Amino acid sequence: MSAQEERGALTLPLALYDHALRVLRQSPDGVPPRRGYSLPQESGPGDALPSREEGENAVREALSPLPDDFATLHRRFARLGIGDRHKHLIRSAVSNLPLQAGQHDAARSLGRQLTRTGTTVSAVTAGLALLIRLGESEDVPYLSALGLLREVTRPAIDALDILDRRSAAVIWLIACTRHDELRPLVRALWTRDPQAIRTELEAFSAAPRFLSTTAARRIAEATRLPDLLDQHPSDTALLARAGRLLVRMGCTRDTPTDLLAYHDALTLYESVVTRARLLPPTLDHHATLLSLALDLSSGPGMLLDWPPGRRTALLESLGRLLAEPQWASLADTDADEADQRLRAGWIRRTGRQPFMRPATPGRLRVEIVAGDPVDREPVETRILLDERPLVPAVFARGPAHSPDHLLDDGRLRAGPEPHEVQIAEAYCTEGCCGALYVTIRREGDHVVWEDWRRPPTMPGSRGLAPELPAYRFDAAAYDAEIARAETDRSWSWPARTTARLIKAGLMERPELLSRWDARRGWISSGFNDPDTTVVTFSYAPGLAAGKPDGIPLQFRWVITDNGTSPEAQAAAALRRLAEEDPKTYGQVCGGNRERAEELGFPWPDGT
Fold this sequence. Notes:
Strand content: 5-15%
């Protein structure tokens, strides 16, 4: 062998799997860093392929016939211009690759060789895609190591999810959580220290900003939470944390499909609800149990594969417990902290709602649900069709719209002309992940919901979502249910009622704002402080005449609850709008600094 050949042999690229092991050994205390490791950037083949279809055809050509080793696939990828930047296309093509039963062993063997010896992201991605389809338990250690590399984390986790959900969850928590508050728990999970896992599980903050629905599910999977509860049946802190994780998994503001994807959801519900009597009666625990009851009565929890009658039995059990004096009296105690006062008021308004069933169940039920105000959960109009919550069942990208949108403006009424209604919008906006629409029309003695529009797939799925059927309702029953929901104000609190009355007043008398070249915007209770009423409006010279001079500014007027009735506070606000220019007491909250300075208004500090 020549000296040049020897140098080439000594500097062969390191397999990605070996690279992952090496950087892990070099990590302080042997624990991967937050978000895992990134590979060195190297140039290589991978110019843009002409189209997705042509790209998938090229990948199929590279895999047909199945190569015997990594080197052959690497040469084929290089010849066809397939490189690391095409990893998503490679995965899609491999997942759709036709494989006969007699090819499974060969394809599995190739997948293992690619994941264990592949030196490029493109080759390893192809191997991971094969193991997503054909992997076995012996592949778990290799998949876990590769999952630490950012460039192939997603397919590695997807393969692990099928084979070992605990390992998949641990890798997900390492690679995808961005909050340092979870690092002690992640470290305990990685080192498999049982006592540390239990301690850190109970200790970390479970506030929504730290705990998405997916993070809650992954923590439950990584800790094997039902088993942990069985091992420590008297640990009330652990029981409370399990309930909290269940609440977060079913949060409709995020991705409620995480609750449905959690394989042990039924077992965890059973463990938490049947042991709920062990919890000390506190406002925090009451809020957790009430949130679980709301989920079981009208939320994503209804969609789990419950044995006949079991969901109802658990719901009734919670109802009996929360009706006991030591629990029911919590809402009437004087709380010192603002959050606890919010919770106490919410429990007073909402405490019996999930346990009250309609006297005459019909095809349609509309429930207005205000979630835990301390968690800043939304107020949503939950629509149940045949006792199944519509939005998490067919959309699951965000909650149903608020009653302000769907009920106060009469959008769910069935009028003489068909009209389309947006039932829900993705939490990241319609332009990003879509919305759910339905057309409502009256047909003689019936009301029909039809011509649905929604994203073509459900979250977490690549397959096309099935077409939604038309729903027919008895018109009299439909009208009665919508009228009942429109007049139900039991869920509302003073600041929210004040906002509704101000909005109604401005709809009747738009001149109260137009006289100031202003136009009504969003009006509701405050997000960060639900005990305030927030009125927003836009302003530009000439806006009232329909000829605004330049880009409008947005203003925000915050009204603090003064303890008088919502009717009195709304009337006072409308009088002030009639008599004083709202730009003199509202604060600029949108537009741009240059426009604000041009019109003589201060721009808010820190923006």
